[in-house]
Design goal:
This protein has 251 residues and is an alpha+beta fold. The protein folds into two domains: 12-130, Glutamine synthetase, N-terminal domain (Ubiquitin-like (UB roll)), CATH 3.10.20.70; 137-250, Creatine Kinase, Chain A, domain 2. 27% of the residues lie in helices and 25% in strands. The protein is built from five helices and 13 strands. The chain has helices at 12-24, 51-57, 117-130, 171-183, 209-229, and strands spanning 29-35, 41-46, 59-62, 76-81, 87-88, 98-106, 137-138, 141-147, 188-193, 199-204, 207-208, 233-235, 249-250. Helix 4 packs across helix 5 (209-229). The longest helix is centred in the last third of the chain and has 21 residues, at 209-229. It is globular and about 55 Å long. The chain starts with 11 loop residues before the first helix and ends with a strand.
Length: 251
């Protein structure tokens, strides 16, 4: 059991704004996100009745079950939600209203956990500022494939780079994905078919590094969820098709 210590360091007014939005938008539950040391997204959901306490004090979890985190004898960890990252997840008519916040991971005494990738990035940005630089903007270009299902690599089209014909069968799927991304506050510059069959790219507008890191894990999940809702499978695997261009994340 993790003792209550009022660990949050975020703006109290920002926390109040989140509570108001949850009530006004009739949010049914809120996802708390963080990543393991390898960048895999981790998530758990809490009900609106627990949000105020969670915003002030975080939610405890077993760090020994997370790749790269602590061993079992020191497994207690706490996820502190960042109220500035609160967003409503994309939903179709009739689906539950779901919020999400991205968390910083701390130890039970409230000090940052050194293995938290978000903390590592904050420390790197502090070093950058100590060297006299003000901002580190970043604009990654994520490429991915769409396959007919998750059992193989059957493609949806034979389109090529910048294809704008019937060969690019996923134009509307990309459009739907962009609407979902923009609904959670991720600005998009453009999108297009990539070089390989069934390969696509949606480019986010550049942003400060921490904001973009949060956007990137959100982007990857939304691309996969929109694809699944349309009966196809999205993958960011680097080289799923032999003899075809692979997918990268140019920055």
């Amino acid at each position: 059991m993790v003792e209550s210590k009022h660990r949050a360091t975020s703006d109290p007014e920002a926390r109040k704004d989140v509570l108001k939005r949850i009530k006004d938008d009739k949010v049914e539950y809120v996802l708390f996100w963080f990543t393991d040391l390898e960048g895999h997204l981790k998530s758990f959901a809490i009900t609106p009745g627990e949000i105020e306490t969670a915003l002030d004090d975080g939610m405890g979890f077993d760090g020994s079950s997370i790749t790269g985190f602590n061993a079992i004898e020191e497994s207690d960890m706490v996820a502190i939600p960042d109220p500035d990252t609160f967003r409503l997840m994309p939903a179709r008519a009739g689906e539950a209203v779901v919020g999400r916040m991205i968390c910083d991971v701390v130890k039970p005494d409230g000090t940052p956990y050194e293995g938290d990738p978000r903390f590592m990035l904050r420390k790197a940005l502090e070093r950058m500022q100590g060297m006299g630089f003000d901002t580190f903007n970043i604009g990654p270009e994520l490429e991915y494939f769409l396959f007919k299902d998750n059992k193989g690599t059957e493609t949806l089209d034979e389109g090529g780079y910048f294809a704008m014909t019937a060969l690019d069968a996923a134009t509307e799927l990309r459009n739907e994905t962009i609407r979902a991304l923009e609904s959670v506050g991720i600005p998009i510059e453009y999108h297009h078919h990539e070089v390989a069959p069934s390969q696509h790219e949606i480019d986010m507008r550049y942003a400060p590094a921490l904001e973009m890191a949060d956007a990137t894990i959100t982007y990857r999940l939304i691309v996969k969820e929109v694809a699944a809702k349309n009966g196809v499978y999205a993958t960011f695997m680097p080289k799923p098709l032999f003899g075809e261009n692979g997918s990268g994340m140019h920055t």
